[in-house]
Description:
Layout: E1 4-12, E2 15-25, E3 28-33, E4 36-45, E5 48-57, E6 71-81, E7 84-90, E8 97-104, H1 117-128, H2 133-136
Antiparallel strand pairs: 1-2, 1-8, 2-3, 3-4, 4-5, 5-6, 6-7, 7-8
Amino acid sequence: xxxxxxxxxxxxxxxxxxxxxxxxxxxxxxxxxxxxxxxxxxxxxxxxxxxxxxxxxxxxxxxxxxxxxxxxxxxxxxxxxxxxxxxxxxxxxxxxxxxxxxxxxxxxxxxxxxxxxxxxxxxxxxxxxxxxxxxxxxxxx
Length: 141
């Protein structure tokens, strides 16, 4: 599982539950779909991947009964490939299992998303810092 943007399909025994997108950056997993956002830490052990994930329903769906808590955690485990992953987890409140299948997306020119690393990962880090690069460097004083 390389750094990049992935298309993710979530399935249960009832079929496809939804589709989303996630960003893998080192040991961080951040994603969203139509109903919730998720953030997790990736741990790799001898070919097995464990992702401890916090999941939160989008605020505009607070009053919709999705049969899921508003905020909950899942521990996913499975296999990671260079261009994707297959993970499975079990909902603690129901015991039902869910599967996440992710596939890396490519840039329009055919390069893998990881080729764009400086533009999307570094830009995200800059936006998350409370000061702009110019302010950190003392420019404009």
